[in-house]
Amino acid sequence: MSDLQPRKDLLDIESLSLDEIEYVLENAVPFKQLFQRSVKKVPALRGKTVLNLFYEPSTRTSSSFEVAANRMSADVTNFTVSASSIVKGESLLDTIETLQAMRSDYIVIRHQAAGVPGIVAQHTRASVLNAGDGYHAHPTQALLDAMTFREVYPDYQGRKIVIVGDVLHSRVARSTSTLFHKLGVEVGVLGPGSLVPQGRHPFMTRLRDWDEVFEWGPDAVYLLRVQLERQEGQFFPSIAEYHKMYGMNSERLGRMRERDAYLMHPGPVNRGVEITDQAMGYEKSLISTQVENGIAVRMAVLHWLTPETQKD
Ligand code: CP
Fold this sequence. Notes:
The protein has 312 residues and is of the alpha/beta class. It folds into two domains: 18-137 and 293-311, Rossmann fold (3-Layer(aba) Sandwich); 139-291, Rossmann fold (3-Layer(aba) Sandwich), CATH 3.40.50.1370. The chain contains eleven helices and nine strands. The protein has helices spanning 18-34, 60-71, 92-101, 116-122, 139-152, 171-182, 210-216, 239-246, 250-258, 277-280, 287-304; strands at residues 49-54, 75-80, 106-111, 127-133, 160-164, 186-190, 205-207, 220-223, 262-264. The strands form two sheets. The chain has a five-stranded parallel sheet with strand order 7-6-5-8-9. The site of phosphoric acid mono(formamide)ester has 9 residues, from helix 2.
């Protein structure tokens, strides 16, 4: 840490240096080891407060941040947007001012609009952790994905991961692909032309179908959820058609097995769309490990960030 400049907020992956990424990923390892103990808590954030502010639904990220903050001994408040004055028309900046007055040390925020965590960060002394904003970024998801990949492939550099599905609407795809690229992992992409933006990620290898994917030789396949709630208009003929062309089925699973490839998914999973029930039981699925590593990574991030409230 001594060589790193203090950082107040975590808003995206693009602005992180390799040293910062390494720092978080390396520090997540001892936090994960804590989970084997009967007492899973450390006193690192005793007396600090963490506010979870989710404007969009979440299961994994919100509960993971809550567990992570609890394991760091912080006091956690979950702010329920649907039960707040926001539904009465309170503006974002007025909400921030109210939260600022509560003197939280960390604000974890998910919002449907890209850029909102950045705006909040400019208006508060608390450290802001982006828990997903629009199509823009989901940095802790990317960090937990990288931790998971590196656990199974300590020789991760030069390895290959293919991201499959709705890349266009996916903040996960944007952050995770950027992070893997920074770490020297090759990134491929497979999906309907309408859901794979041209030119956004020039470092990604565009693959046309599963035959090309398996010829390319991925070490892991990363399935994305089809984000129907974000799609205005029709991006593919039908769910059945999507499943047939891009879904993980028993034939594709057999080809994964032949190459010993791992399966990843950020959740929530749409069974019968991007993955079958059978594929969910694949022995080299890392989906549960991703969830577990999410807690360790978020503990490491909370430990690393420096709120300006610490200057008081
Ligand atoms: N991976 C992820 O962001 O899941 P949630 O929407 O459940 O938080």
